[in-house]
Amino acid sequence: MNEITMRLAADKYIRLALEEDINSEDVTTNSVMPEYKKGEVQLICKQDGIIAGLGVFERVFHLLDENTKIDFDVKDGDTVQNGQHLATVTGDIRVLLSGERTALNYLQRMSGIATYTNTVAKMLEGTKTTLLDTRKTTPCMRIFEKYAVKVGGGSNHRYNLSDGVLLKDNHIDAAGSVKKAVEAAKAYAPFVRKIEVEVENLDMVKEAVEAGADIIMLDNMTPEQMAEAIRIIDGRAETECSGNMTKENIKTITELGVDYVSSGALTHSAPILDISLKHLKTIE
Question: Exposed, middle or buried: residue 255 (CB in 10 Å: 0-12, 13-18, 19+)?
Answer without folding.
Answer: exposed
